[in-house]
Each structure stands twice: as C-alpha cells, then as structure tokens.
Amino acid sequence: MPVYVDNLHVIVCGTDVSNPALVDLTIGDDVPTDAPVPIAPSGRGAIGWARNAPNPFNPRTRIDYALLAPARVTLEVFDVNGRRLDVLMANTPKPAGQHFVVWDGVDRRGQRAGSGVYYYRIRAGNEFRTGTMHLVK
After folding, report:
1. What letters, b where the CB count within 10 A reaches 16 and e where it falls short, cover 39-51?
2. CATH number of the CATH domain containing 98
C-alpha cells in the first residue's frame, strides 16, 4: 500500500490509486501522544495502524496501534543490526480498538540504549507492522 507525504498530508492509496484516502496531520514536537486517532480499515488483517510519538524521542516514546479485531499481540524493539533489545508484549490477548505501549529506551537487561535508530515490530495474528524510532540524547 503506497503512502505519500505531501507537506502536512499523508495520502494512503490501496490497490486503487485513483481513490486515495487523505489524512491531515499536525507535525511538531508538541503533538500530544494521547490524542485519539480514528481507526481506518486497512483492508488487510488485524492491525489498522501503528506509530510512535514523539519521534525523535528522549528518553521514552509511546507506540500506539489499533486492532480491527481481537488478537494476540507481540511487540518487540530491535537495533539497526536486527538484535532484539526488548519485548514489550509477548503474545498478549488484546481486544479490538486503540492501544499503546511505552518504550523507555532501556533494553531487557536494564541498559540504556544509545542515540540511534531503532525499530519496533508489532505482530497481531499473522500480520506484522514495523516502524522506525529515533532516540536522540
């Protein structure tokens, strides 16, 4: 599914690019991370969307996601080399709707992560979504 960024708009196109969905966004450091975001059907599996904010972040970021149907959710954090740093949720049953998890920039051994790029991967059922997070100190 192509996603195009046009100034303060994100245009999401399914297989029919003649009928895109336009989503208005506010971009800036003062965007509240607890603001509700409408669930838009993805036309695929259980995950409607996933994102983290703030991004870049220091010292923590909130990973928001929406489930279109109940699912068992796993959410993991990886470094740029693909090493798993933390498991924020492991096969946890969640109902349909909006949810969030906070990553505090600490790995599963209690060590603070350094500045850099990190990835989160959310799995619900057989569907995966991945996002990029930037930790800046």
Report:
1. eeebeebbbbbbb
2. 2.60.40.4070
* CA separation for the pair 104, 82 (Å, rounded): 19
- State the Cα angle at 56 between 52 and 59, rounded to 5°: 90
- pLDDT by residue (tens digit) across 8-50? 334 443 444 444 444 444 344 343 444 444 444 444 568 888 9
Block residue for tokens 């930790």: 135
Query: Where do we find the tokens 């991004």?
Result: 55
Residue 104 belongs to what domain range? 45-135
In a domain, 19, yes or no: no
Query: Which residues, in sequence order, are bridge partners of residue 76?
Result: 87, 121
8 A C-beta contact, residue 61 and residue 54: yes
- Residue 13: both structure tokens together: 């196109």
Token digits of residue 28:
């800036």
Angle at 127 between CA 40 and CA 107, to 5 degrees: 100
